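I'd like us to work through together how a protein chain folds, taking it slowly. To get us started, please write out a protein record for me. Label the sequence line and the structure token line clearly, so we can match residues to local backbone shapes. Once you have written the record down, we can walk along the chain together.
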Amino acid sequence: MILNETSGVISSPLYPRHYPDNQTCSWQITASQGNHVVLEITTTDVHSCGASGECTCDYLQVQNGFSVDPGASGRICGINLPKISYYSIHESLKVMFVSDSSSSKRNDGFQATYKQLNYTPPICPTEAIPLSNNGKLSSPKYPMSNYTASQNCTWIITVPVGKHVKLAFTDFALGSCALDCSSESCTYVEVYNGASAKLSFAGEIL
């Protein structure tokens, strides 16, 4: 099923009643050009079997998306899981729900909401990501919710020879920090001019 509405709800067959056996359902959620998809799995009651975390019987799976929430990797199954949010890397997300032939289960399935937003995907790169000309940078999950702890994001901005880079902070709200931003529990932004010269920023408003 292809979905291109600005917002909506998807769920397993017959939800909130027990879902049938031998089901394979898929949803392709596509945003308009320039937008991205945010999916929040709000309710999970999916039969779990196999080794811990493998979800070999029934499962929910999200493709072409990214999440920093615990339990979001791979297949999803289980009961009363915390809410999980996914963010599309490009303009669409694919969601799959699969149930096997086990007739002994009595699970209600899942429900999720989705919406379109214009945002920079909240992916925190672990390697340097080159950018050029112009663009936007943001902390993970901005502006939907608070950024995740223990992140280390790096961007390298490159321009043609003879050009210079202008970096402007349009919104800035980090926790308090030591003057030299040296604490391991500190949240801060460092801006390098070349390989060594740097400025460090922390706090609420610049």
